[in-house]
Design brief:
Layout (H helix, E strand, L loop, with lengths): L1 H10 L7 E3 L2 E22 L5 E6 L6 E2 L4 E5 L2 H36 L5 H34 L1 E3 L4 E3 L9 E2 L8 E16 H5 L4 H7 L4 E4 L10 E10 L4 E9 L10 E17 L3 E4 L2 E8 L2 E9 L7 E6 L6 E3 L14
Helix pairs in contact: 2-3
């Protein structure tokens, strides 16, 4: 009798639920995105002439200035070609001078009716041909001079030297599979990541988003947080239909040279909501594309549709509509609730 009496008493106990009263407050949620790091300008250096590398003038990771010598390609064939081209110019100039004298002489003789018009025209054509040959020889000299200058490979910008896959003695040309090196301008670094479009929508327009977005943090691969914050500088206008994201570019200052082009990391973007209602995700139930919470009204659970921000930190949702400060809701186990359940 005592056992059956105890069972009856237990059966009459109603389960209790955790509840909370919602309040408005400022809230910051952070969203993390995988990112790639690039120099402000990464320039692949290819040779413009063929030959063997005679000298490497820099080392990997060295800081270089615009115009600084990086490589020297074997120069003797190009010096010889320039000498030949210069000699050809001199010969062409002399030939043109002779042809010009002949033409002028024939002009005077033709005026005195000593030579025929044919002889005059022939002399003129010889002079014009010599003039064209001089122009051609001068162009070849310029080309030879340029080719010789190309044997000294110089940095096109300030930056840092990347990998050096070719060493002294290696035969290189404009068609080599890998560049001689890459010069990265890394005084500032560009960090690229795909960002949820919802992050920009809360600001109204893309321009307003760029003006008002907070500074972002960069977490490096060793889980350390980079000591400078970055500014979102641009957001692409093209949306990835599969993910609903847009490509964003953040600028991080890099005076310490701790960031390297080609590395990866994680961008942490804070979203700041003023005077908003935040609730635990455990207080919500997902029903297809809708989010439901259970308000406590007169001791009973009443299902209520709410609109939440698309941004969350995995623990809380920011409620955009459907709840007011002072409302009481079931804060845990909402998925087990039923409409009208007595809430103790």
């Amino acid at each position: 009798w005592m056992a059956s009496c105890k069972q009856a008493t237990d059966a009459g106990v109603k389960p209790s639920y955790a509840t909370m009263k919602v309040e408005a407050a400022d809230k910051e949620l952070s969203t993390s995105y995988s990112a790639t790091i690039r120099g402000r300008q990464d320039i692949d250096i290819y040779p413009q002439v063929s030959g063997t590398i005679e000298k490497l003038c820099v080392t990997e990771g060295q800081t270089v200035r615009r115009g600084q010598l990086l490589f020297v390609i074997y120069q003797i064939p190009y010096r010889a070609a320039l000498k030949t081209a210069t000699a050809n110019v001199e010969a062409a100039r002399a030939a043109m001078a002779t042809a010009e004298l002949t033409y002028k002489s024939n002009k005077e003789l033709y005026a005195q009716k000593v030579v025929s018009e044919f002889s005059l025209k022939t002399a003129e054509n010889t002079f014009l041909t010599a003039k064209a040959q001089l122009t051609q020889a001068e162009a070849q000299e310029t080309n030879a001079r340029n080719n010789l200058s190309y044997t000294e490979v110089k940095s096109p910008s300030d930056g840092v030297v990347g990998a050096l896959p070719y060493r002294a003695g290696a035969l290189v040309s404009a068609n080599i599979p890998y560049p001689l090196t890459t010069v990265s301008d890394n005084s500032d670094m560009y960090v690229y990541f795909s960002m949820l479009l919802a992050l920009t929508r809360q600001y109204g327009s893309m321009d307003e988003a760029l003006k008002n977005m907070p500074e972002v943090e960069l977490v490096l691969n060793d889980n350390s947080v980079y000591n400078k914050k970055g500014i979102i500088e641009s957001i692409s206008g093209v949306i990835d239909r599969q993910t609903g994201t847009v490509m964003a570019r953040v600028v991080f200052p890099n005076e310490s040279r701790l960031l390297h082009s080609g590395a990866s990391g994680t961008v942490v973007v804070p979203s700041i909501y003023k005077d908003c209602i935040a609730i635990p995700q455990g207080a919500t139930v997902q029903m297809q594309d809708k989010v439901v919470v259970y308000k406590v009204v007169d001791g009973k659970a009443v299902s209520t549709l709410v609109t939440v921000s698309g941004i969350s930190d995995g623990r809380e949702y920011v409620v955009l509509s459907g709840l007011n400060p002072g409302d009481e809701i079931v804060s845990e186990g909402a998925g087990l609730m039923r409409e009208g359940t007595q809430v103790k």
